[in-house]
Design a protein that fits this description.
The protein has 14 helices and twelve strands. With 310 residues, it is an alpha/beta fold.
Length: 310
């Protein structure tokens, strides 16, 4: 392990590369990354770097987003099989057809979409700013929100806006059900519950939190969870998202207790990136993810619209 880490460091310097990792990446991958974060932070990082090469330890749509934002950099994804079930739940063709049925609507796409879908969208959003992005759209405008139905329902609830929601979902977060939440709540009445809004228990949790004025149930993006815990005096947390995030939570807060709401909430795509694949990716400069200019130029506008909102 030490040997491969040393080789990665050497190649990184030689190639003027940075390594960025999503909060769900394997622990050893997060540890060697220059930067770890949620989807919004990773997009921002890609827009700020001067590196010639960005090695992305995440999934394909994230590497595409980096390529859209930094077209002059060489963006590498160590394993091209690192896809995303949520991004695959809508195609650009699906979106074009949906837009035809609502010609005056504003299209808001979650960052977990392909570059082609972003190119057909007015705004992007992530789990950390979806509410803000919807609130920035004039009240009289119809909104198409895609592709996550659980996040869409959450945004609808939080903004009080009636929006059209695509019926997509993430296969990992969909498995985090109301029953999981109820069972864990019963067993851990003293814990704070951190809920990622892609989870299928989200609507029920929002109802519980608002009806009972229960501030032990909170909704965050992955980095939102990390920031909240780092600044909290509470000591026990039940975490409703992909389990990879527990690494950083525990590392930053060794005295606190973290319980995954579901042990098998594992994104197999995020785990495809290993130290060995990172080494080969840097050595052979593989696998480059490059978005065609005409698509990238249109998709960039949707991402910039999001970044300008927050
Ligand atoms: P965030 O890290 O932006 O909360 O997204 C979660 C996710 O599922 C990324 O694929
Ligand atoms: Fe996609 Fe779900 Fe994996 Fe996130 S956890 S990358 S949404 S499949």
């Amino acid at each position: 392990m030490e040997e491969i880490k040393k080789k990665i460091e050497e190649l990184k310097k030689e190639k003027n590369a940075i390594i960025v990792a999503h909060n769900y990446a394997r622990p050893e991958v997060q540890n060697i990354a220059d930067f770890t974060g949620d989807s919004l932070e990773l997009s921002r990082k890609a827009s700020e770097t001067n590196a010639e090469m960005i090695l992305f330890c995440g999934v394909h749509f994230m590497a595409e987003t980096a390529s859209i934002i930094s077209p002059e950099a060489k963006v590498l994804l160590p394993d091209l099989n690192a896809g995303c079930s949520l991004a695959e739940s809508i195609t650009a063709e699906d979106l074009v057809n949906w837009k035809r049925q609502h010609p005056n609507a504003v299209v808001i796409s979650y960052i977990n979409t392909t570059a082609e879908v972003k190119a057909e969208s007015d705004h992007c959003c992530t789990s950390s700013n979806a509410v803000k992005v919807v609130e920035a759209i004039p009240k009289d405008k119809e909104i198409l929100f895609l592709p996550d139905k659980f996040l869409g329902a959450y945004v609808q609830e939080m903004t009080g806006r009636k929006i059209h929601i695509w019926k997509g979902s993430c296969h990992v977060h969909e498995k985090i059900t109301e029953t999981d939440f109820e069972d864990m709540k019963r067993e851990n009445p003293d814990a704070v519950f951190l809920i990622h809004p892609e989870s299928s228990c989200t609507q029920n949790c929002v109802k519980k939190a608002t009806q009972h004025n229960d501030d032990s149930i909170r909704f965050f993006s992955t980095s939102g969870m990390i920031n909240y815990v780092n600044n909290s005096n509470e000591n026990k947390f039940v975490v409703a998202t992909e389990v990879g995030i527990l690494h950083r939570l525990k590392k930053d807060n060794p005295g606190k207790m973290f319980i995954p709401i579901k042990e098998n909430a594992v994104c197999e795509y995020m785990k495809l990136t290993t130290l060995e694949k990172i080494y080969y990716a840097l050595l052979y400069e593989q696998y480059e993810v490059k978005v065609k200019k005409n698509i990238a130029d249109r998709a960039r506008k949707a991402i910039e619209n999001m970044i300008s909102i927050g």
